[in-house]
Write a structure and sequence with these properties.
Elements (H helix, E strand, L loop, with lengths): L5 E4 L3 H12 L4 E4 L3 H9 L7 E3 L3 H6 L6 E4 L5 H10 L8 E4 L5 H13 L3 E8 L1 H7 L2 E6 L4 H11 L14 E2 L2 H29 L5 H12 L6 H9 L11 H4 L9 H12 L4 H14 L1 H7 L14 H34 L5 H7 L11 H10 L10 H24 L4 H14 L5 H12 L18
Parallel strand pairs: 1-2, 1-4, 2-3, 4-5, 5-6, 7-8
Antiparallel strand pairs: 6-7
Helix pairs in contact: 1-6, 5-8, 8-12, 8-13, 8-15, 9-10, 12-13, 13-19, 15-18, 15-19, 16-17
């Protein structure tokens, strides 16, 4: 019996769909789950008649794999990954490859890569984006880890991943140790920002203009036909058309306004703070979920705290167009923050990230896939050392054309008492980045006053301290 090309350990929906995807592209797959009944159900139902074999033990799995063995782990991040590695590593031979396809923290992947390589094995930590559907028909895949492992998994990953219009695969080697999981973490952070920005646009349409879900669905569908064309805008239009059969109301209107999170947005924000990179829009998106979670407090506070409750009385069509422009400009800033974070991490860890390749990988299959990622790729292809996306001609012009509308939307939101933390923070980021002078001089004086922290001067070199008292 021919040995399998790759094993999938962890047969949740993502693991199952990746296994089915691999099999459909001509690869022999082994399936294993620590719950035997889950393995049996998968093999006898979804995988019936396919070149996917279920195994009941890790020993059987190792025996049935072709060398070098390629084992993809689709288990929850954290302790489960470490425990699985501890069980698998002693059973493997030098050159065998362990692949973590979950949303592991990149620092864990750095540690695991070093440990696995010390045993003569190879390790890959790869981001997989696109959700359950993407896993089945073509996700975006962001692998990093042991470079020697890439030639062995490249044929599989680039066959199963999404493709852009010219056939280019949405999968390329990212860099050593934790690079792949870092890029996926930032992808998710940008996703947080994108979702919050879109939600704020929806909130403005609903509260400032009093639009119905059906009317807003039409607006988002129109936006998706232009420069905002993206997966998240597309599904937003679809979501707003769905009616609850029990109440006859739009489903979006009966969903409780408390958002959950799994941690990758928080990790992105924490890492930005650790590296000293400004990523306020991503952080505000995380904080927006936090404040949404204290709904009972908000409902109680709404009975006591006051604020404006007006609606926009100007030109409705003009304000809708202004919101569209504000959303696009804010989206640019959110991505700019994410790419600056990746640039800093790449410099610190020596990953040599190719930002054009990353933009290409995100153009298909993943949750943040969008038309404008093509412009990001073009920007970095033209200037590989581009300091900030805002400085690329396309994005400079896009911001210029949107500025007046962007400022109008944020100021009107403030006037009407409608919270737009992500839209507002994106504008503040832009205004901070474009200023040649910020108030940090006073801040440094304050630090020197109470803590003798010293300061630098603009008229001569050196470090100085003033006896303020």
């Amino acid at each position: 019996m021919a040995k399998a090309d790759i094993a999938m350990v962890g047969l949740g929906v993502m693991g199952q769909n990746l296994a089915l995807n691999m099999e459909s592209k001509g690869f022999g797959v082994l399936g294993y789950d620590y719950l035997p009944e889950k393995t049996d159900k998968f093999i006898t139902q979804r995988a019936a008649g396919k070149n996917i074999t279920g195994v009941r033990s890790l020993e059987e799995l190792v025996r049935a794999l072709a060398s070098p063995r390629k084992i993809m782990m689709m288990v929850p991040a954290g302790k489960a990954v470490d425990e699985l590695i501890e069980s698998l590593a002693p059973r493997l031979e030098p050159g065998d490859i362990l692949i973590d396809g979950g949303n592991s923290y990149f620092k864990d992947t750095i540690r695991r890569t070093k440990d696995i390589e010390s045993k003569g094995l190879l390790y890959i930590g790869t981001g997989v984006s696109g959700g359950e559907e993407g896993a089945l028909i073509g996700p975006s895949i962001m692998p990093g880890g042991s470079p020697d492992a890439w030639p062995h998994v490249k044929p599989i990953f680039q066959r199963i991943c999404a493709k852009v219009a010219d056939g280019s695969p949405c999968c390329e080697w990212v860099g050593s140790d934790g690079a792949g999981h870092f890029v996926k973490m930032v992808h998710n952070g940008i996703e947080y920002g994108d979702m919050q920005l879109i939600s704020e646009a929806y909130f403005l349409l609903a509260n400032a203009l009093g639009m119905t879900a059906a009317e807003m669905a039409g607006v988002f569908a129109d936006w998706n036909a232009g420069e905002l064309d993206s997966y998240l805008i597309e599904i937003t239009a679809d979501i707003l058309t769905k009616i609850d059969p029990e109440t006859g109301r739009p489903i979006v209107d009966i969903i409780k306004d408390t958002a959950a999170q799994k941690g990758t947005g928080m990790w992105t924000s924490q890492t930005a703070l650790e590296l000293g990179v400004a990523a306020p829009t991503i952080a505000e998106a995380v904080f927006a979920r936090c404040i949404s979670a204290i709904r009972d407090e908000r409902v109680a506070a709404a009975k006591t705290l006051t604020g404006p409750s007006q609606v926009y009385t100007g030109d409705k069509a003009g304000f809708i167009e202004a919101i569209r422009k504000a959303l696009y400009a804010s989206k640019i800033c959110s991505y700019a923050q994410g790419f600056q974070l990746m640039r800093e991490a790449s410099n610190i860890h020596g990953w040599g990230l190719d930002f054009g390749d990353i933009a290409l990988m995100w153009r298909g299959g993943c949750i943040i896939r969008a038309r404008f990622l093509g412009h990001i790729k073009e920007a970095f292809d033209a200037q590989p050392n581009l300091a900030n996306l805002l400085l690329a001609p396309y994005f400079t012009q896009a911001i210029d054309s949107a500025q007046e509308s962007w400022r109008l939307v944020v100021s009107e939101a403030v006037r009407l008492g409608i919270p737009v933390p992500a839209l507002g923070s994106a504008l503040a980021y832009y205004d901070s980045y474009r200023r040649d002078k910020l108030p940090a001089n006073l801040l440094q004086a304050q630090r020197d006053y109470f803590g003798a922290h010293t300061y630098e001067r603009i008229d001569k070199p050196g470090v100085f301290h003033t006896e303020w008292i």
